[in-house]
Model the fold of this input.
Amino acid sequence: MMNCFETRQEFVSFWRGALDRERRRVLLAHLQGCSKCDRAFRTFALTAPMLHPKGEAVAASGDAAPQAVSRGMPQDLPQDLPIGMSMSGARRADATRAAEILRRASVCRLEPRRRVRQWRELAAGVSAVAAAALVAYFSVAAPPQSFDEVVTSSDSISETVPLPGTDFLGQRIPSIPAVSSDLAG
Amino acid sequence: MVAGALGGEPAAFAELATRHRARVERICQRFFSDTEQVRDLAQETFIHAYGGLKGYRAEIPFGAWLRAIAINLCYDELRRRRRRPEELVADFSAAEANWVGLINTATPEELVEAAEERREAKVLADKLLATLRPEDRLVLTLQNGEELSVSEIAGIVGWSEAKVKIRAFRARQALRRQAARLVGPRKAENE
Done:
């Protein structure tokens, strides 16, 4: 009989079909009788297709490279981390050469990715040219002026300033008759 | 063979890539459900490996070195992607809703068999994992998928073990929250 901890430890093996018949029977019997573990298994099943994808066993067995990586051994891990590896080290020429080698080995199909990269480079180039053109345009079209030049320039006078005797719409303002002396008291 | 690749023999590198391809793709599969994305990342891994061959040290197993590069690239890609809001997880297609229904009603054996055939099972799993922060997802995937220990993960990603543990704890908590929305109490078989 398995306890809850042991049962949950076997979820991955059960999912991969790696349990022998007896262990499988015991696990299923436990799941049948324990609602908490049953729910835990269903929760596990929600993410298992990603975390333990199909074909796992096949991939693992085909993994027996000459230098088989014994998982779980800390000394397997790189000491100077590829995580921090400078990706600029993968220079363009190297990348092109690697891509060619991989293509010949039919390991990866490379065309779509390369095309995307070319488009990105083109877009970046166009953006840079447009930015340079804008900077050049504004630097030529709007030479720096002093405050006095701006204020005294006739161009800088607003068109909305009304002429004498007219309103802002250009309508003539009627003259107001003089107040008579009678009303003035 | 590694020595041959280091010596600039294209055939040796091609042979290495062929041998390690399945393993690299499997790592990428744990992070992304899209097949094209997985292939792209596998390809990037080998290109980066080729570019970094000069920095490779023979005492490190080539597979572990490749694995770390693949993990690095997957993590970069996760960070580039926008995180899916938690509340959107309930936003299912009909097929995904059907799969959730099955999760709640099928027997464990039926679930294992059905998950093999159903693409939506993978899509839904990806959606769930996409609600996690990239670093949480990274730790969860390495711990549960690759079955790496805390110290191994800390060694690969360059974090402290405490940080790895905290990330794993938070990832599990977040997943539990999601599961609580999707997995109901068991329908008793004896009813």
User: Anything to note?
Assistant: Chain A touches chain B through 67 residues (CB under 8 Å). Residues 4-56 of chain A form one domain. The radius of gyration of chain A is 40 Å. Helices of chain A lie at 4-9, 11-16, 21-33, 35-51, 56-61, 92-104, 111-141, 147-152.
